[in-house]
Design a protein that fits this description.
Elements: E1 6-9, H1 43-53, E2 58-61, H2 63-69, H3 75-78, E3 86-90, H4 97-110, E4 116-119, H5 121-125, H6 127-133, E5 139-141, H7 147-159, E6 169-172, E7 178-180, H8 199-207, E8 225-228, E9 230-231, H9 244-251, E10 257-258, H10 261-274, E11 279-282, H11 290-300, E12 309-312, H12 319-328, E13 332-339, H13 343-349, H14 355-367, E14 372-379, H15 386-403, E15 409-415, H16 425-428, E16 435-437, H17 442-449, H18 454-457, E17 460-462, H19 467-487, H20 493-515, H21 521-530, H22 553-562
Parallel strand pairs: 1-2, 1-3, 3-4, 4-5, 8-11, 11-12, 12-13, 13-14, 14-15
Antiparallel strand pairs: 5-6, 6-7, 9-10, 16-17
């Protein structure tokens, strides 16, 4: 077996999800992953690339996916075979709290002398509680960029000393005291990070572990890729752990940092060498300024890339930029999240534009050849009551009447679930925004993830809607949106009937869990079945089309034979 210095492990959201009687509800219905969130963070790829470039042999194991695809896979039998110098676990978003901590505890029981490292935004926020209450965790790497701190930590682990010199590190001293070195490695741009899109395949071949590197279940059928524009955000959505306020609170950053747009364009070109599948550009191309977006288009122009390219905007962009976007990218798609039809709700939440601006953007996009526009609305917002949610669905109907012909407009709605993110404006000052939080500590959120119903797992309610109201509004809104989609040809009658059946079963299950004591065998079986089904949409709705071969085997082989990319 190949020597490994560091194993990066991605846990399921609930470690024993295959046995735990937990109905997760529609928390992942409008994202590609399942309810255990088996997509590992893109930071795993940049960490591995940085470490490998400096001689630290690294392995990625998507433990969540292994557990999801094979019910016979036993982590307790697999993990003892791994003997690196250290284990790394992501605790980026809080829904992974149970999986991350349970995995750390299992690793420490199996490998008591091998250090366990946690990292990510949630680990950063809760680093004191983690080191105080969870002895299975030895180190927490804090901040949004830990490539170089992790390299220095691995060197210190190899020596057995020097932890005080590692930036961004929280750790325990010999006397058990918690030491925080401070977040003092904060790069001003991201041009140092490497994206070698064949690296995962090389590492999979090295370790003979293809499923350890796949991003999510179904990726081989739909090999979508993502490119990264930056870290942090210029905007301040009130519930988001990646917002401007959250990054200031959690990471000490005053502003987002970006990769050069030319590098982002080069990423897309390299991916398109190996696949015809869609490519998603993470982050608004304009949040670093109009010049950033123009430089990206200049670098991409004439690329010959015909993959479906999806870009996201946080606010409606200038119309002339959309016109040029359509000229440069032949098959482009757009995502934007208006959150609500109600301007007061939208503005309070952090989105400062009106419906007229939104609709002008939609006209421009569809006139300029945009293949599809995805609109995401949310339930659980400030000033939003049940009637307002239903009015948002009515607004979706109006938009579909105006822009719907051809199936190029796709509205979606989902609850803000399961958690308001730690570090966000609402989490830090809930009463100011009309929220009540049920859970605040890491331990409380771990227990929340293990509640039998997603209703009781929500960590908030609002002045305008209780948790029960949020659940009711979610299923009612989904039913009404299904009818609109059938009417406008976005779903077939058969697809809608299947989703309607799932919604009905989910309503019944939530009610049954709420009125029962210990869950009987029938309820446990219903939980297992419904956790594998989406209720709010057909998962295929989220997919952009693929034309031709999904992957180019000969080009991939040539890339593998050429060795690791030298392009950062």
């Amino acid at each position: 077996m190949a020597r490994t210095d560091l194993v990066l492990l991605h846990p399921p959201s609930i470690f024993d999800f295959r046995e735990a009687p937990v109905f997760s509800g529609p928390v992942s219905d409008v994202v590609p992953s399942s309810s255990i969130f088996e997509i590992y963070p893109v930071g795993f790829l940049t960490l591995a690339a940085h470490l490998e470039a400096h001689g630290v042999r690294t392995r990625i194991v998507n433990l969540a996916l292994k557990m999801l695809r094979d019910e016979r896979f036993d982590p307790a039998a697999f993990l003892p075979r791994l003997k690196p110098q250290a284990f790394g676990i992501d605790l980026h978003w809080l829904p992974h709290v149970d999986g991350a901590l349970a995995l750390a505890e299992l690793l420490k029981s199996l490998h008591p002398t091998i250090p366990v490292i946690l990292g990510g935004l949630s680990a950063t926020y809760y680093h004191d509680e983690i080191l105080r209450d969870y002895p299975a965790v030895d180190f927490v790497l804090c901040g949004d960029s830990t490539e170089e701190p992790l390299r220095l930590l691995m060197a210190a682990i190899a020596r057995g000393d020097g932890y005080a010199e590692v930036p961004n590190l929280a750790w325990r001293g010999a006397d058990g005291s918690i030491i925080n070195n401070g977040i003092n490695w904060q790069p001003d741009d991201l041009d140092f990070i490497r994206f070698d899109y064949l690296q995962s395949l090389r590492l999979a071949l090295r370790h003979r572990d293809p499923y350890g590197y796949l991003p999510f279940r179904g990726w081989l059928r739909y090999p979508v890729s993502a490119v990264v524009t930056g870290r942090g955000c210029a905007h301040n959505c009130l519930s988001c752990g990646g917002s401007r306020a959250a990054f200031r609170t959690v990471c000490g950053r005053e502003h987002p940092v970006f990769r050069a747009p030319e590098r982002v364009a080069a990423d897309i070109r390299r991916i398109a060498d190996y696949t015809t599948a869609p490519i998603f550009v993470l982050g608004d191309l304009l949040q670093a300024g109009r010049g950033y977006g123009e430089r990206f288009l200049d670098a991409f122009a004439g690329s010959g890339v015909t993959n479906e390219i999806a870009v996201e905007f946080f606010t409606p962009p200038p119309l002339d930029f959309l016109h040029r976007l359509g000229q440069v990218i032949p098959n482009y798609n757009v995502e934007i999240s208006p959150e609500s039809h109600d301007l007061k709700i939208r503005e309070t939440f952090g989105k400062n534009y009106g419906n007229a601006e939104l609709e002008t953007m939609l006209h421009a996009l569809l006139d300029n050849g945009c293949r599809r526009v995805d609109l995401f609305f949310m339930i659980g917002l400030p000033h939003q009551d049940y009637a307002s949610v239903m009015a948002t669905i009515d607004y979706c109907g109006t938009l579909l009447d105006t822009f719907g012909p051809g199936g190029r407009l796709l509205p979606m709605i989902a609850p803000l679930a399961p958690f308001i993110d730690p570090g966000s404006a609402i989490f830090e000052d809930p009463l100011r925004y009309g929220y009540r939080l049920f859970y605040r500590s890491l331990a409380e959120h771990r227990q929340a993830m293990r509640q039998p119903s997603w209703l009781h797992g929500l960590n908030y309610e609002t002045t305008w809607m209780s948790r029960a109201d949020i659940v009711r509004a979610t299923y009612d809104a989904a039913e009404r949106l299904l009818a609109l989609k059938v009417r406008h040809g976005l779903l077939t009658t058969g697809q809608a009937e299947q989703l309607q059946t799932t919604i009905g079963r989910a309503r019944t299950l939530v009610a049954a869990i709420g009125h029962s004591g210990p869950l009987d065998a029938a309820l446990r079986q219903e939980i297992r079945e419904l956790n594998g089904l989406a209720a709010l949409c057909d998962k295929h709705e989220l997919e952009w089309p693929i034309s031709g071969w999904k992957l180019h085997p000969l080009k991939i082989l040539r890339g593998l034979l050429a060795g690791p990319s030298k392009i950062a």
